[in-house]
Structure formats: C-alpha cells, structure tokens
Amino acid sequence: MPAGELQNPTENGTEEEAWVWAQIKTEAKRDAESEPALASYLYSTILSHSSLERSLSFHLGNKLCSSTMLSTLLYDLFLNAFSSDPSLCSAAVADLRAARIRDPACVSFSHCLLNYKGFLACQAHRVAHKLWTQSRRPLALALHSRIADVFAVDIHPAARIGKGILFDHATGVVVGETAVIGNNVSILHHVTLGGTGKVGGDRHPKIGDGVLIGAGATILGNVKIGEGAKIGAGSVVLIDVPPRTTAVGNPARLVGGKERPSKHEDVPGESMDHTSFISEWSDYII
C-alpha cells in the first residue's frame, strides 16, 4: 500500500464518506488517463456521478439486472434505499476501508467498488434486508436470488450483518436466515453459516465482532462465535467458540485445549492472521 494513501479521515461519518468518495474519483480519473480502454466504463460508473450512493446504485443496477428486472428499476430501488437510510452508505464506506486495509490484493477503493463481488453482494444484501424488514418480502427474495446468481454469494435477506465486513473472494459464501454477523468480521470463500436440519426458529450462527473465518469453514446451528475468535480453514464448528480463541479441525477443537484454550490479543478479523496458531497446535503433523 502506498505510503500516505490511507490517511486517517475525520471521525465524522459524513466527512469520512466524502473523503472516500473523493479518493474513488481521483483513482478513477487516474485509471481513465492511464488506460483509455476503460475511460468510458469509469465515466459511466464513477466519474459521471455526484455521490457514492449514485455510483453504487448505478453499478449494482447494471450488475444485477435481467431481462425481467430492469437496471433502471434496480437503480431507483438502490438509490432510494441508500438515500433514505444513511447507515447503508456508512456501512459501505466501512466495507471499502476494510477491503483496502486488510486485503493486500486490493489496489484502490475504486477497484473494490467496481470489482469485488463480496463487497457488491454485501451492499445489495443490505438493501434486500431493508426490504425484508419493511415486509416487502417477495422483492427481497427476488433480489436475493439475483445476488446469488450473479455473485455466487447466498445471503438470506433476513440475515443481519454489521459493518466493516470483508468477504474475501466470496465465492460460495452461504449465510442462513437467522444468522447474525457482527462488525469488523472477515470471511473467506466457501464459508457456510448454516442450520443443522429443517428445524425452524433461531437456527443459525451468531458471529461476534472482529471474528476471522477461514476458507471452507462450516459453522452449523445456533452457536455463538465469540468476539475476536478465529476459525481455521476447513473447520467444522458445531458448538460455541469462546472469545479470543482459535478453533481448528473437523470436528473443531480449541487450540490449547477446552479447559485452558490459548487466547490471542489481536483482532483476527482485522489482522487477517490465519496461521499463528500452528506453532501451538500439537496435532499439526506432516
């Protein structure tokens, strides 16, 4: 990451959004000048718009449209949601910053806005969730279906998601109806937050703030993953995981043992440290 590019913006949410939008436009202008083949695309998606809400609404509308769900209809739907609920734009900015800071492959805010399907799926989901809470469930489910078709990310519109979320790569992520994801959580591809059968009610995982869930992990049932916990890649979790601990394996077990599990001080959802537990894990043998 270039030195000085991510300067600390003001704490005021509206000013932070303005700062990020200014960065996005600057990046788009730079890229349009250096790569003329993208100039028209960058103008239509970013440079012709007066705000992040309008740019994101336009881009999502074009990504998710179909022959029977027109881009103009979706643009109006997204723009109305973003304009009427400032928390949606605030969450989008937090997600942009999460990708830019945590993912070394993210070269710019505009790159995330245009190309990160995990980011785009998350923003579209938040609108679908808003529709769900407004009892506009047929439209919420139709939007959910398009998100799954286009982005290969299947998040039920009733699921609740915080902000500062990174769906890294995102392909194959499944989040069930009663799942809850806290703030500053990072989730890799092919993660499932699912149920254990066809029992109804509150049946999906609750993910605390600052959690990191590795690629291919499966968490099933109404279990709680504590704040700042880490779930290793490929793990299968069927019971609660205490805060600040690491669960690995199938079935998952706590590093350090159930009675005295090892605890870490960092926030793995932000540090993205997937492997520090290996030196402490006695069962790790090649």
From TrEMBL:
UniProt catalytic activity: L-serine + acetyl-CoA = O-acetyl-L-serine + CoA
Native organism: Carpinus fangiana
Official protein name in the record: serine O-acetyltransferase
Alphabetized SMART domains for the sequence: SATase_N (SM00971)
Serine acetyltransferase N-terminal domain ranges (all copies): 20-124
Compositionally biased intervals (Basic and acidic residues): 256-273
Region (Disordered): 251-273
A GO molecular-function annotation: serine O-acetyltransferase activity
CDD domains in UniProt: LbH_SAT (cd03354)
Pathway(s) annotated for this protein in UniProt: Amino-acid biosynthesis; L-cysteine biosynthesis; L-cysteine from L-serine: step 1/2
Keyword check for Kinase: no
InterPro entries xrefs: Hexapep (IPR001451), Hexapep_transf_CS (IPR018357), LbH_SAT (IPR045304), Ser_AcTrfase_N (IPR010493), Ser_AcTrfase_N_sf (IPR042122), Ser_O-AcTrfase (IPR005881), Serine_acetyltransferase (IPR053376), Trimer_LpxA-like_sf (IPR011004)
Record flagged with keyword Calcium: no
Sequence similarity: Belongs to the transferase hexapeptide repeat family.
EC number of the protein: 2.3.1.30
